[in-house]
Amino acid sequence: MVSAGAMSGSGNLMDFLDEPFPDVGTYEDFHTIDWLREKSRDTDRHRKVHAVHKDGAWALLHAVEDSGWLSLLLPGTLAGVIDLAVDWMTDLKEGICLSAFWYSHEQCCWTSNETTFEDRDKCPLWQKWSELLVKQSEGASAYILNYLMYILWALLFAFLAVSLVRVFAPYACGSGIPEIKTILSGFIIRGYWGKWTLLIKTVTLVLVVSSGLSLGKEGPLVHVACCCGNFFSSLFSKYSKNEGKRREVLSAAAAAGVSVAFGAPIGGVLFSPEEVSYYFPLKTLWRSFFAALVAAFTLRSINPFGNSRLVLFYVEYHTPWYMAELFPFILLGVFGGLWGTLFIRCNIAWCRRRKTTKLGKYPVLEVIAVTAITAIVAYPNPYTRRSTSELISELFNDCGALESSQLCDYINDPNMTRPVDDIPDRPAGVGVYTAMWQLALALIFKIVITIFTFGMKIPSGLFIPSMAVGAMAGRMVGIGVEQLAYHHHDWIIFRNWCRPGADCVTPGLYAMVGAAACLGGVTRMTVSLVVIMFELTGGLEYIVPLMAAAVTSKWVADAFGKEGIYEAHIHLNGYPFLDVKDEFTHRTLATDVMRPRRGEPPLSVLTQGSMTVEDVETLIKETDYNGFPVVVSRDSERLIGFAQRRELIPAIKNARQRQEGIVSDSVMYFTEEPPELPANSPQPLKLRRVLNLSPFTVTDHTPMETVVDIFRKLGLRQCLVTRSGRLLGIITKKDVLRHMAQMANQDPESIMFN
Amino acid sequence: MVSAGAMSGSGNLMDFLDEPFPDVGTYEDFHTIDWLREKSRDTDRHRKVHAVHKDGAWALLHAVEDSGWLSLLLPGTLAGVIDLAVDWMTDLKEGICLSAFWYSHEQCCWTSNETTFEDRDKCPLWQKWSELLVKQSEGASAYILNYLMYILWALLFAFLAVSLVRVFAPYACGSGIPEIKTILSGFIIRGYWGKWTLLIKTVTLVLVVSSGLSLGKEGPLVHVACCCGNFFSSLFSKYSKNEGKRREVLSAAAAAGVSVAFGAPIGGVLFSPEEVSYYFPLKTLWRSFFAALVAAFTLRSINPFGNSRLVLFYVEYHTPWYMAELFPFILLGVFGGLWGTLFIRCNIAWCRRRKTTKLGKYPVLEVIAVTAITAIVAYPNPYTRRSTSELISELFNDCGALESSQLCDYINDPNMTRPVDDIPDRPAGVGVYTAMWQLALALIFKIVITIFTFGMKIPSGLFIPSMAVGAMAGRMVGIGVEQLAYHHHDWIIFRNWCRPGADCVTPGLYAMVGAAACLGGVTRMTVSLVVIMFELTGGLEYIVPLMAAAVTSKWVADAFGKEGIYEAHIHLNGYPFLDVKDEFTHRTLATDVMRPRRGEPPLSVLTQGSMTVEDVETLIKETDYNGFPVVVSRDSERLIGFAQRRELIPAIKNARQRQEGIVSDSVMYFTEEPPELPANSPQPLKLRRVLNLSPFTVTDHTPMETVVDIFRKLGLRQCLVTRSGRLLGIITKKDVLRHMAQMANQDPESIMFN
């Protein structure tokens, strides 16, 4: 069925795809890839390998390549190591283990046999710095010494971290998720997944988390996991030579990253298509799932949390929730939305200031200053002194009978002996009131300091601080509702479900709902957020409160601005990111967006058989376009194809060096047969093999809505605009982004790269 | 920035989109929709409504429309009602409750106070038919009477069901999932989601499940949920008038269907994009999630399973699994893959026979015959007599201390008193050996009868029978391994993990793994399958065994044929379904696929200003194409647009009736200005508004791989092929499907619809 003409055509295509020149098909840094082309190149490679190896060998090769997915053991392992190291170094700020300095506080006391369960926090082997240095454990001077040591360690860790990042791996800073989103959407940032980035990000992540700064390890862990994925993909040419295939691996690695960050494999699988991945083929779903599971199980076998649970904050509540509680849950959702808006606005304003003023020139000083302030303010308050994950964990917890926390200092009814699990609501004791004040102060501090911390030149994640803000607010609301219900159980709203002596309000659940709301407000995640939270509790029971809060928070935050923090940072940095979620509803046409505009000089085009080598070389030198449309002649302007700059240059260079008779006056032709030339003209140069004979075209009347859809779904880099077959102009991804920014009343020049 | 030329162009476009004729924009039955067009129409509607209503009113309208999602309460309610009705009618085959005939066996005995927990199955109020009719409960004659009553009821139910389907709603038969996949991919089958289909499918589903046929209610429940979704969407013009938007609702409804079928909301959310949805915008993810949750919670509040659990088969295992057990798990995976292959081949062969021979003419007789055979063979065996869901539930269960089932008839060590949960492995008793024989017979029967049952003209799902086959095989393997481990715990493979007195093998887990393997082999689901199974157990613990079995099963089954049962039925019925998962890797070009082929008469085109009304009318009459490309002139063949038949016909008719001076000799023009005509020529007819000025084009050199990708991702209906701006031909979705079938060595003429 294949006609002769088509065969010769595909013969040429084959030449073209065989990549005769070494750097054809690779992209330059900060450029956008062409998904359709990458896909077609992969199919081609597939066919070629298939032709060489017979079925058996091919299957074997395939198996070897696929076994490479085992490198996904790495993120799990790294996450485990990071957790252990952070544990140790956080405790190092307070004291040291005498039996073995590499033990954390908990490990130190576990290994010592002298401690009972009640005194599990106090053991002679663990010494605070004051005990070790001046043999004092109480008193003002001991307190000040410990305070100073705490600040010193924090400064040391922070200084080390920011220096390492500056010297060895500038890409290791930040959470990495904005860049991951952009790169996965088809942008090239070389070195972003490099081995140095992997190493330095892992080490500095430990340092900054231990230094007590208000940041989390979740976002950076996703970046680290992607680096692992990239390291693996560099081992196989199938992935390393094809930017499209490489992004499939990276999508799966991102899922693995979330999976180990929270111990939530299914949440990780959903996070990947919902948040970071742009071009998510269905078969990636299965691989992501596999990656997420392998990573989760590696982490569990390392068991850094010491509870043989997969999850970071395992909670078990004993009471259901009641309809009336939806009201405070929705209030928490509103709080989360407001916090998200406030945080995004302030953080972006501060980051813009950092970019545009002198401030940005002293990143080390900035980190040191923020660390110093954090440490000085944080130490006196027990809720900010400890690590943020521990704080969240405590806030989420239900008050069991064995709980010694200040938050569980309720006044017990001495006459009652009850099973451990089912403690009725009790009046709050002194400890709870103290805790409320401290939590309120900690909340304000956390809100302020996080705004200044996120975006500094160190690895910094947002999930944990956001969750902490929400958990503190939630716990306070929860305790408030609980005490209200205890003291006023005759009120009409409590009468139906909260009799005296019943366990009706679980403040820990409020903390969890608050955390979900705040995280949702900042990141605008929905499904994956709820699933992650669901995996933390492991019960369907509490999905409705979580969903109610997440939806409210998203609605409230969206009312003030559609962008989540990651999109806001993408815009701030001017990355060319075409969001899948943005709907383009304006009534503009392709003709309004294409270049050249009315009055601009005409498009630089090549003709199929009338330009000389010199003409083309001049054109290439004088312009910096990535490619040139090829037309039949300047008069007819009928489009026949598209030649890429990066293929044209080596092809001409190559021909000039190796092919005889090619001089500046040689006519360059893109047709199958050379044009008819005068008798004494020099040897013509055939360049059909660098010509893309199937450029993507739309007509000038195509609505931009359709054009945006095509760019998104097919991952195009550029698209030619024609009318009745005549070339009118070109639309690049950057033009589309500029136009979208313009329509949204933003500065179109903020999109910087191409 | 919008230039004047563009404005006039968009003015015309506006005319065109304003739908001046009543039936413009609707599709005929068994036609394919154009996704890009539907999307653009929705944006247009959006803009129009936005312009009329001001922001406040618009938000309100939006809220009302979105509150319509509450109609998703319906699937949950229906599922609950179906469960209750099936319970009652299944028991009706064995006996009746004297206190209230509408009570099922369990409800009857629960409400009677005379029964103890031990005798919960026996209560005087519940009477078997023999007790009621001849006052005998034991003995051969009682047995025969009960046997006969069982067969009679089964036949009655089946006859009612098949008659109802035949008379009222022919679309209510089958599982519906192949049709749902096809329709969601953009095909029109009118009446498939009708109210009659909803009603009849619900009623007949109860009847056929109760009749004891080897079929499940899960697939049909997805269809029922989609019908509910369609019913909702018919209430709002936003959805009912736009086939694209309607499909978004249906995707969410499908998620709700799976969610209620298994009580697995997250599994449902993943099922929708993985299995049924074709065009799955991200915002649908959130709606699906919402739909799935609402449905699940409605079902729970109805509480048909009486255990206040969300899930159909809730299990709780007390022991972990061991590495060595992976071997039997993988064996079960192989079994699942083989079963899947066998089932698909035999079932398709039988269904093809039904389609092509006389057999298909007697659907009622066929159903009666299969029901009779099923009832006759099933009754004597306790594992086939009961409902299949009960069977699966029993097979999944771990043997606790209170378990009275025959499968748990182990020989207890009289010296041991142990907590209830932690029973060590014990030698099998007589009951277990009997059960093994009965299970083996039941397995063979189930395998054979399911092949003949699926595809009859009644609602029939496959999930439950497949799971039952796997669960039976799995339980038998599990008991085998358990006894092997008990009797030979000195063998090297058992020595490490199975000491005497330990509870090391859980046969119920094997049943679950077997069920997952068999379901995977038949449907080729992966992620959603594992997530559904994970939601059933509610623990991450057993994901690895489930995954191992699901992957093995998929590999084994794929080795024999890539198609799952639903794809196989789609092919059998010749639906135009372009699978997202199929990779097209052949090296053909657009020119090889386009019509007209070499030697065929040229494409029927319209010219922009030289054809008369009569010419066009003749062309429309003589051909049956859905649309015609419009070119500048027959000589230049430069493409300017595409006119759809269903817009052209009413436009001409309209003009002839209402517009003065339009006669057969009137020149029809598609340009902005009328062509220059001789002085005495009749009034020309302007038809630019029916012209689509942005038809989708590719060049003849475009690889088919790219074309297939474009058709899939953009949901195109047709695409024009050009070379240097000249029109060469057209490719329709049907051409693409035919070409793909041809490349896969299938009969291209098997694709029947367009």
UniProtKB/TrEMBL annotation, chains A, B:
Domain called CBS: residue spans: 594-660, 691-749
Keywords assigned: Antiport, ATP-binding, CBS domain, Chloride, Endosome, Ion transport, Membrane, Nucleotide-binding, Repeat, Transmembrane, Transmembrane helix, Transport
Membrane-spanning residues: 147-172, 220-237, 249-272, 326-350, 362-379, 435-455, 462-481, 509-534
Subcellular location: Endosome membrane; Membrane
Annotated family: Belongs to the chloride channel (TC 2.A.49) family.
Protein name: Chloride channel protein
Membrane-topology descriptor: Multi-pass membrane protein
Listed Pfam families: CBS (PF00571), Voltage_CLC (PF00654)
Gene that this polypeptide is encoded by: CLCN4
One Gene Ontology cellular component annotation held by this UniProt entry: synaptic vesicle
Molecular function (Gene Ontology), one example: voltage-gated chloride channel activity
